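Figure-free illustration: sequence to structure, shown twice.
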Amino acid sequence: MNKKDLLKKWDKLNGQSERIKIHHQCIPEFSIGFSENFNLCAHLKINNKQTNLRHERHEEKNISFIFDNNVKIIVVELLDVFFKDIFLDLIISLFNTIKDEKDDQKVVDNFTFCIFKWRSFFTKTNGNLSENDIKGLLGELFILKNIISRNKLEINDAIKSWRGPYGDPQDFQYDTNLIEVKSKLSSEESVKISSIQQLSPEGQNLILAVVNLNKSADGKDLSMMINDLREIVISKNGDISELYKSLRKAGVEINELQKYEYLRFNFLLEEFYNASSPEFPSLRTDNVPKEIKKVRYTLLLSNLKAYRIPEFY
């Protein structure tokens, strides 16, 4: 099930009020169609009259959720076409959540949980990302893509390992591994370290990952990178809402990615350094006086060859 499949089904209805089942392999009675206002909508019909829908109606500015306990139906309606892409992802997520479930109460509970997990994505933000923000994000997403594709972590654990958007000292953390990601243009010889904590291992395995970029009209923009990740997550039956939650925390508005299309980069090379080594040249919590609370410094990479390591994925 993908967005193209969904849109083809909606096209068959030609804007009429009838509904069509989302997929023949879906056990629950889950269908898509158009509302009375000709908005995209989805319906979940429950046949067991003893099932409790638990809620009534939640109408927000851009999306509506109706829980009708009398006729045992849940209706999800898109109110603002600006959020169409997110709405399609929500429907796919709902489908994957309930498609194999036979217990009606579990269907309703899982469906409802999924709805409320996604509702925050249907609000607009006013943030704008700078070119440096985009470069940094592309580097982190590139590393995340490789972790998801090559690492043995369970898919949702791999997504949750991305901690940069949440203000953690390092950009990634899983098991006993910490990864700090720095993006730079290939012509640059150094990276900037913005705090004492960034290269402080704290007893764990700390890797400095440097992603080299080259600005290019035929490179990847933020939208392309996010779509690549989205496809991988869905193919591995991961929870795409976890990725969107982290992106939103990082200041990314999924429905406004086109405004960053002019910033395209080729990914040239990854370099990895063992920042856990006691000899690694860094300022960290165990070698900086407690009286010093904030530092920023530049790390010259050409002098770090002794600490280069193979890729860690």
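We now fold a second protein in the same way, so the two outputs can be compared directly.
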Amino acid sequence: MDKLFHYSEDPAITIFQQMVIAIESKWYPAVSQTTLYEYTFSPESFYSWDEGAGYYLSEETVSPLDVRPLGDLVHFLSRSDIELRITPSLMPLRDSLLQSSLHFSMIRMRNASLT
């Protein structure tokens, strides 16, 4: 990937912070059939472990304030202005991200195809 483009009628945009989730096509059935749950926690005991990736840790045992199912995950992502990209392999994207200044998380790359 050499360049990314954004088209807009607004010439004053200076920062882009859109969230993009990329999955390999073989994982689409699991994503579309999985019920994901959102856990809400009080932030007091958490600290940022990796701000760019959005990882927060607590060294204390914590209990959730609330738990709610998100329902149809693909529909939830589309309603949340989160872009879902489906690709045969994450490796070309991984290679491009490692050479970029973008913030990213690759916490599940162990599940990716090596091709």
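Summary for the second example: The longest helix spans residues 91-98.
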